[in-house]
Amino acid sequence: MPTANSPVINLLDSIKAEGDHPNVEIVFDVPELRLVRFDLGSGVEVGRHQSDSVVTMYALAGDGTIVTGNLESPFRAGDLVVCGRNETHGFSAGGGGLAVLAAIAPSPG
What we know:
The protein has 109 residues and is an all-beta fold. Helix content is 0%, strand content 58%. The protein has no helices and seven strands.
């Protein structure tokens, strides 16, 4: 989280893409916006789900597959995907793991 001493958040520091479950860190959270970093080890997934919010997902590092609606697409560092309200989405890591920043607006409670 940003602090009084620095507004800068380095999202690539301390990525923990290991184990058989996603490592989830809330980076920032206010009613209008939640930022969440998901770190996934090889083969780990965030299953398909829906949200009442708009969800923007940015691949920070690694590669894998992303699902939006009924489409499944490759997802690698530098890719950005925006899902509308109540649109099904999820992602899984490839062999080298995957780190994703999700911006959820508005924050889900």
